[in-house]
Amino acid sequence: MFQDRYTLAFKLYPYAKSADQDADTPVRHPVVVVGGGPIGLATALDLGRQGIPVVLLDDHEGVGVGSRAICFSKRTLEIADRYGCGAPMLDKGVVWNVGKVFHDDRQVYDFNLLPEDGHRNPAFINLQQPYFERFLFEQIVAEQENGAPIDIRGKNRVDAMTDQGDHVTLNITTPDGPYTITADWLIACDGASSPLRAMMGLDFDGRVFQDSFLIADIRMTSKSFPTERWFWFEPWFKSGASTLLHKQPDDVWRIDFQIGWDVDRKEELKEDNIRARIDAMLGDDVEYDIVWSSIYTFQCRRMKEFRHGRVIFAGDAAHQVSPFGARGANSGMQDVDNLGWKLGLVLNGTAPETLLDSYHEERSYGADENILNSTRSTDFITPKSKISHIFRNAVLDLAEHHAFARPIVNSGRLSLPCTYDGLSLNGADDLTGGPARTRPGSPCPDAPLGDGFLLDHLGNDFVLLAINADVPAQITEDGIPIRRVALATPEDATGALAERYLGTATAAVYLIRPDQHVVARWDGFDETAVRRALRTACGKD
Amino acid sequence: MAELNLSPNLTEPDEFYAALIESHTGLTEEESMAQNARLILLLANHIGDCDTLKQAITLARAQADEGS
Ligand SMILES: Cc1cc2nc3c(=O)[nH]c(=O)nc-3n(C[C@H](O)[C@H](O)[C@H](O)COP(=O)(O)OP(=O)(O)OC[C@H]3O[C@@H](n4cnc5c(N)ncnc54)[C@H](O)[C@@H]3O)c2cc1C
Fold first, then answer.
1. Are A463 and A482 in contact, with CB atoms under 8 Å apart?
2. How far is CA A160 from the centre of its chain?
3. How many domains does one find in chain A?
């Protein structure tokens, strides 16, 4: 009656009977999160760190085997840093900067991500998704030990949900049988095939790509491949219409073959057949073990609305993209970053419920950007008509000889955080000469500061960042405090702070959200303007 | 935004046209399509401005849709 759908890489939260299961009437919780994937775990962590009691229900007892996501972006690491678990990820992860693109048997070009100096985190790390989830979970345990009210319940499967308007009722199945709880707020992080979305009869429309990809993660004893991203269009070894090779920790390599739409999955997944493809690629003399293999297909789509009253969707449940560009988990982490503080303010009564509509506004904007980018990459990688195939190969042929064609080559545009341009929570942009990259709506770029970094000082609450300007130590507007971070040019040894936050200005005042996005910026301190911007950022005007 | 130039602008129209046709000599239909694709990409890069290119794309496509 309780059947696992997948085997576990790490058992993290074994089933334990909860007192709720013996209660006479369903116990009411402020927030319930459904799904213990990366997005659900991060949501529980964000809310728990704010002191908000949160129950997380997952139908398994830990992280499933199979790495799926491997590329985690700088922004994701910055969010993890804010939660206190960025360091172990960076420590375990593989940092890479170089990518090579091949067509048939020729190298078309190579690129270097050339990460900008003066950031704590690199542009990307490669890390198996189970590790990423485990580090989030370990941080949850650390927070629980500090009293964070996070309750994770393994083997708790949500089988039915009833929307009661101002709360929801959940029917849950466990190894000890069913029970019921209610929740003021429900955060649905139950993945791409979201049962909650189906229970609510909500649509999830978009484009299906008619191609399958065979993934093999292999452990190689040979050290002949560098820590680079290698991508082949129409490789000479014929193991797929395209092929990706990318390094992960523990001497594991991700190989991803595009194998076409009409394939016999069972046949293709036989070890001998997988080995035939890999051997053709690596040569017969290379020794390796297959750690994990899988065939996946994908769609690019999103829900029309991410918020339905008291039910809020995040991560793959709300939006799905192709893996090219590493925009899945990375964008889900930005959902959490965005939702956490908003829900926190609504729950402590300092912001109106309508603030949560801005979660949909901002994150669906982000999802659209991701879908656009990943759709374009996919169309380039898997051309679907004769003429698009001809153009694709013309680009590759030209790129081999001419620099001009290289920017058109698209083997995945790697995930960058979204700037919420022109959306409702943004305030004034009144900093003459201020850099474009820190305009309202932007995620704050990092900069070195003393022994640490700027982002260590931003986030979790509203911050008034003053550079060469006087601002009060604390302002409170309608119950919401604004913390001061005052800096001056002598502290900016590298000049990065000036370059990223002043531009040609000599002084600046920034109002920054708890998720480290810029609300508004000015030449100097104007209390009325700051208060107005804060109200706007909290959905009060 | 640059306006797509629709007035005569070729310095030597006959010379250009002959070179264009000549460049397809001996190519199969498939190879000709690839030749055209490369040429379009080279010219597009020379023009550079995306708005101008989109005007040209739209104009070319309009005639296909009119069936003329
Ligand atoms: C091949 C591949 C490569 C990828 N590479 C990358 C990459 O490099 N970078 C990147 O950022 N992203 C990548 N992704 C995407 C990434 O894996 C997903 O975006 C990410 O896992 C989404 O996390 P989630 O928490 O939203 O959902 P999931 O990880 O799917 O988690 C959902 C959870 O909900 C649980 N659940 C479901 N139903 C119920 C229920 N009824 N009751 C209780 N619990 C339930 C499930 O058991 C599961 O634990 C890749 C994906 C694939 C397939």
1. yes
2. 27
3. 2
Residue A483 structural domain = 429-537
Type of residue at A210: Q
CA distance linking residue A380 with residue A393, whole number of Å: 10
**β-bridge pairing A54-57 and A150-153:** parallel
Is the domain of A339 the same as that of A488? no
Q: What is the pLDDT of residues A333-355, one digit of tens each?
A: 999 999 999 999 999 999 999 99
Task: Name residues whose C-beta falls within 8 Å of residue A439's C-beta, 6 or more positions apart in sequence.
Answer: A419, A421, A429, A518, A521
CB A322 within 8 A of CB A212: no
Rounded to two decimals, the pTM is 0.96
Note whether residue A221 is domain-resident: no
Q: Is residue A269 part of a domain?
A: no
Distances A393 to A132, A240, A242, B25 between C-alpha atoms, Å: 37, 16, 13, 21
Strands A27-34 and A177-188: parallel
Residues A361 and A501 in one domain: no
ipTM of this predicted structure: 0.96
Q: Which residues line ligand 1 (CB under 6 A)?
A: A 34-40, 57-60, 68-71, 129, 157-158, 189-191, 195, 215, 296, 315-317, 323, 326, 328-330, 332
Picking from A352, A369, A386, the residue at the C-terminal end of a domain is A369
Is A315 in the same domain as A170? yes
Give the CATH number of the domain where residue A497 resides.
Answer: 3.40.30.120
CA–centroid distance, residue A535 to ligand 1 (Å): 35
Distance (angstroms) between ligand 1 centre and the Cα of A236 equals 33
